[in-house]
Amino acid sequence: MESDDNTAETFRRNFDGEVIEKDIRNVPSFEMWDDADVVVGGPPCQGFSNLNKTSTEALSDERNELWRHFLRAVEDIDPDVFLIENVSRFLKSREGARAVKIAEELGYTIVVDTLWAHDYGVPQKRKRGFVLGSKLGVPFFPEETDEETRTVRDAFGSLPHEPSEENWHVSRKRVTELSKRRFQEVPPGGNRFDLPKELMPDCWKNKERGGTDLFSRLWWNLPSVTIRTEFYKPEKGRYLHPEANRSITIREGARLQTFPDDFEFVGARTRVAPQIGNAVPPKLAYHLGRAIKSHLEGKKAESIQRRKPNMISSRNRSGLGSKSSPNLPRSAVSNL
């Protein structure tokens, strides 16, 4: 289910599956898909993002409650397993705790954790939170891979430094002369603090602390920072090419997310970049999928695995699952 038309079409072009192009809030029932074994979703994360300076306890954003509609789908479909992905702050929020409570009341054994993408072969230090529920026993997250940490050079060092119009190896179209002068002043690994005062915008002159990733260059020999929805704008983070005087291209961002080069994106570059930045890196998704597949085939964890004790609900502190409440009325989500 996807409300954005370009994202929906991108999915159609790459996967053999039905796409419902609709706002999930406008779907009255999900029971027509009650033959699904697994339900996976990523409710909007913007309200929980660390870029939102509001305290976790005081978060207020209408998108923050869309997870309720995801769990409404879980309630209607009654799958064996479900998975929620969001930024890690979701796990510490009031909404995250409510989501776990509802899922337990629906009869699911829940494990929660934060995973780092670079631990699973992704050349990017991206931390995300996951809520995994099962009616088959105690589910589990994938073990970290043994492969060497992949770097920016591994991801796109083979691409030409000069962007082209081929296969999304395109950078920001309109770049001012002032921005070009600023690019030239940032050394390898440098940031906005390396700019001469005369080239700094007033807002940066008055901000002497913090924001060290703004207008910064990536390092060749390290994983990238988190690829967000506007990674083509160096003013938004460490998105300058390690050597070239430009921001990274759409293709370079896609490679940092581990999208294969033959993956087809639909839309203008400003519509494609959010598709890339909002995605779970495919390589991380692959490992999550394998763990869920193993669980469906009978593998179970020996105990509840939680590395974030502040997320453990009062009902599950003993490490036991929530199978004791399988007969909860079907109104559990709407009545919370």
UniProtKB/TrEMBL annotation:
EC id: 2.1.1.37
**Top EC class, one word:** transferase
The record, for Gene3D superfamilies, names: DNA Methylase, subunit A, domain 2, Vaccinia Virus protein VP39
This protein's source sits in the domain of life called Archaea
Which Gene Ontology terms describe the biological processes this protein takes part in?
Answer: methylation
Species? Halorussus caseinilyticus
Q: Where is the composition biased (Polar residues)?
A: 311-336
Keyword Transferase tagged: yes
**Alphabetical list of SUPFAM superfamilies matching this protein:** S-adenosyl-L-methionine-dependent methyltransferases (SSF53335)
- Record's protein name: DNA (cytosine-5-)-methyltransferase
| Chain spans, region Disordered | 297-336
InterPro entries the UniProt entry points to: C5-Methyltransferase (IPR050390), C5_DNA_meth_AS (IPR018117), C5_MeTfrase (IPR001525), SAM-dependent_MTases_sf (IPR029063)
Q: What's one Pfam family the UniProt record gives for this protein?
A: DNA_methylase
